[in-house]
Fold:
Amino acid sequence: MIANARMYAVTPQAEAAWRALLARVSGRAGVALPYVEHPAPAPVSALWSRPDCGCVFMCGYPYASAPVTPQLLAAPVPSHPRYDGRPVYFTEFIVRADAPVQSLAQTFGGRLACMLPESNSGYNAPRHYLMRLAPAGTQALYRPAARATPTPREVVDDVLAGDAELGVIDSYVMDLLRRYDPGLAAQLKTLALTPPAPIPVLVASAGADPQQCARVRAALLEIHEDAAGAALLAALGLARFAAAQPADYACLPEMARKADLAGFALTEPAAGERSMG
Structure:
């Protein structure tokens, strides 16, 4: 079975820290978990569909929507006080640090860099949040960026290049950028946060050996009690891993369902899409 932290391997240093932590988990579990790279532009959904996932990060929205449910292992608990010691995260609405705007409302009508609809922090959560801010009958508050931005780094790059006035990004990704690439993070400012949502979770493939999964799960849940493991967690801004249940993630498809029923989109259709049909 393989390990991978693609979702949170936001810099080479962060990826090295994840490799070290997952190797420690593998050793304590007594389960071989070779780290296999799956870098962009390869779609992260292709990683999740592999039959040999043993300890791989997966976004909670596609997890809860999957026709065949992967096995849950554990969810990370960020150490920053804003997470209140819980396995949650937010979407940050980011603009350039030198942008004159001071509130989210001042960006309405601009271009929004977002991720694919399969992403919770990069699409589902901000759509649900913005739907509640929109005047009655409004179907979108933003125009789309000129190009697709399927990764957090592409969202950041579009905002910094001026190709989008606003971007949406996972708050723990931003934590890691502030830690490992502070120069980049300093070029951005956050205008708003969504309410907390269950954070992406470590999973194994549905067909993985349940006994091995149980050992990996136990190692994750206990790693903060190991001195070396605690130091590796701290390097990633984490306090510990927490147990996760399928019901924890059921709220995410429900958010999408409500936005669908309201006919609310994260961005207006592109010009070519508006002219179709």
